[in-house]
Specification:
Blueprint: H1 5-24, H2 31-38, H3 42-48, H4 52-67, H5 81-98, H6 100-110, H7 116-133, H8 139-161, H9 170-182, H10 186-189
Length: about 200
């Protein structure tokens, strides 16, 4: 949207949703509460955001663009694959650790109608850096790493959102996963010390 009344109203509505998400959580985002918080009519909200899902996704996209994806950078030439992937994971997940309600909202929004937009946004932000980090890997290995790591990320986020995993366990678990996927673990698997 360009400038004008709809753009201003849209910005106020998204700001209200972000405030509700960060202060009270996903369930607090009810259209009447958003309208009251943004000082706009329900009709205006429905005009700009036809559904609650659309409204939450728009707010999450904005939040993630600024907080989780803005700092994703291409790895340096001397950075190992493990270090590159772990740095990208920290860049994305540390803002969520500081804002756990946003991660919970992300989980519920990405599994609902239109949630694939959130996945697409994440891929568009992370893929260029990941491709540089992994450019020399065998395509089959790369596919397997992406499959395992992607499913692990979603499983951990889901466990957090349902209350069975503290948010502070997500990054350490992902870092251990990256280690297991990128290291020669044969000696450890046999119970020998590495090295």
């Amino acid at each position: 949207m360009g400038k004008g009344p709809d753009s201003e109203a849209s910005a106020k509505i998204v700001a209200a949703v972000l405030d509700l998400l960060t202060s009270q959580g996903y369930e607090a985002v009810q259209l009447r509460a958003v309208a009251a918080h943004a000082h706009v009519s329900l009709a205006k909200i429905y005009k700009l955001f036809p559904t609650r899902d659309e409204l939450i996704i728009a707010a999450l996209e904005q939040w993630m663009e600024v907080n989780t994806y803005a700092e994703v950078t291409v790895p340096g030439p001397a950075e190992s694959i493990r270090d590159s992937v772990n740095r990208m994971l920290r860049t994305v997940f540390e803002p969520w650790e500081r804002n756990p309600r946003m991660l919970e909202a992300y989980h519920y929004a990405r599994t609902g109608p239109g949630g694939e937009r959130l996945d697409s946004q994440g891929l568009a932000a992370v893929l260029p850096a990941a491709e540089v980090a992994m450019r020399d890997l065998d395509p089959g290995y790369l596919h397997d790493v992406g499959l395992v790591l992607g499913n692990m990320v979603l499983a951990l986020i889901g466990r957090f959102a349902t209350g069975s995993l503290p948010i502070t366990e997500i990054l350490p678990t992902l870092e251990r996963t990256v280690y297991r996927l990128t290291a020669d673990n044969a000696a450890e698997a046999r119970g020998e010390s590495p090295g």
